[in-house]
Please model this.
Amino acid sequence: MNELSHIDQRGQAHMVDVSGKENTVRTAAALGRIRLNPAMYRAVTDNTGKKGDVLSVARIAGIQAAKRTWELIPLCHALQLTHVSVEFTLLPEEQSVECRCEVKCVGKTGVEMEALTGVNIALLTIYDMCKALGQDMVIGPIWLQEKTGGKTGAYRREELP
Model:
């Protein structure tokens, strides 16, 4: 059985000591979606939202969130990220926006949490910027699409969970 790395022998949470690990290139990408009502979807696609350019603001929010993940999730390490990108795909048949956050660093621990945080905050920003048109939005699913580097190696999940 695998043991949780953030739990010590006494069952208490602690920050994992990564000082003995080698620096390697670490990458991760996460995906998530937000479903909007027709008026919201038009405001996003036509760039007519009352608060401004929804996707540009959400992109910056996602990048900022990925960089500050260590401040939000208590046992995450502060990482020097070398790359963060947040991209959106419009899904008109679903009236949804898909967000993909990709993160990269050279370090001793992975960047999955940073990618997942970037997606979450980008989607929450879309919610915030569209809520003047109603609250009938649904965020999810959100998932880790891929990761490379580290002891556990590569992981990839293409399909929607």
